[in-house]
Specification:
This protein has three helices and no strands. By secondary structure, it is mainly α.
């Protein structure tokens, strides 16, 4: 697909971004309802935060708005999970 139109490339970028964003919402919902994040890996989310920071910067530097926006939103979502894990890590409010 060397000559794929920009709109098609952006459709796949936006779709991928939406899927990534949506994947974190059930975790946030579950922790918020149960007030228990003891099963969430703090180290994994710390590494994920660094990864999303890098992807956001990469998207901005390469002027790819789907990459930038999707990863910036994912960065916010994983940061929320990270904070919830710090707050409810032992399952007690």
């Amino acid at each position: 697909m060397e000559n794929a139109p920009n709109w098609l490339i952006n459709v796949f970028g936006v779709t991928a971004g939406l899927c990534s964003m949506m994947s974190f919402l059930p975790q946030i919902w579950k922790i918020s309802r149960s007030k228990d994040a003891s099963g969430v890996s703090l180290r994994m989310y710390a590494v994920t935060i660094v990864g999303f920071i890098c992807w956001t910067v990469y998207g901005a530097l390469s002027q790819s708005w789907p990459v930038t926006l999707a990863n910036a939103v994912c960065l916010v979502l994983v940061s929320i999970i990270f904070v919830l894990r710090l707050r409810f890590g032992d399952g007690n409010a």
